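Give me the fold.
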Amino acid sequence: MKAFLKRSVALLCVLLTLAIALGGCGIVEDSEKGEALCREFMDYVVKDNQYSAYGMMEDICTREEFLSLWDVMYPVFENTQSYELTQTGWHYDIEDGIDVTTLTFEMKTDDGKSCQLQIMLDDNGELYGFWFLDTTEFEESVSYTIPLNIVFLVLSLLAIAFAIWMIVDCARSKIRYKVLWILLILAAVSISVTYGEMPGLEWSLGLALGFSSITAIPIQLSVCVKLVLPVGAIVYFCLRNHLKRKSMSPYPPTPPYGQPPYGQMPYGQPMQGQPPYGQMPYGQTPYGQPMQGQMPYGQAPTAQTPSAQQPSEQQAPVQQPSASTEPPAPTEPPAEPPSEKQDTPDA
């Protein structure tokens, strides 16, 4: 079974590689045909050869449609002597059951003109459509994007450095769930705002190692501003002190099986540093109870007569008189002491 799975995976990889290679060959072939057709048509326009240019377009448009296109294109290239053609994009589409390949080219002339051209080819490689747009004024109006891209590049480098700093700080700390926090720091939100002829707003999740930019899209007559915000790194930066403080007092370790929880001892055994049950250390008593030989708090000692005192265990018991003995003789009251004042005889 394992050998069969390995063979299946290997065969799938080979087929996928062949499909990509054949697709790449088809793209290169279509690009060469499209560039050759675009150069041929633009040569007719620059040389003011209307008849030959219409011969290329008569199968895909009427005479009136071609004349309207010619009236737009020829004034732009009236003073052009040479030009440069650069492919900027391509895509596939299906129209009326026909596979259509659209190739986009950017054209720069020697007299400072800038244009966008699209050549559409059918599945046989024949010309299926043509599209033209003069973007000279638009590109002049968005020349500010070049210095702004430098600013965005610096900000992107600072954001990447900030994310790397947070990753290193997280890796060196002793917080819980360190791996999850590192993955969160790597996360970023990418926001793309497009304004111009085709405005729009898009956002997506990505890595914090991306670059922000501002790009002019001449074929859409629009400008796209892309911002990459390291949201994960910002969240960790705001919470890192709290996480570090929390890691300083971790939960108590789990005791082994059969042992009591942390800070507790089996029943009948004192905790570490405590006396056995029922005994107190010297000089200490339970709360609210006096020590031996002291009065409770708030009470003063009272005088006790000898008769009120209880005999101790060492003293001998007092013998009580028996009934046969004679009662003691009554005692006379003590004589009064003489007064200090004596009577004197009358004169």
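Confidence is low (pLDDT under 50) at residues 21-26, 305-316, 340-347.
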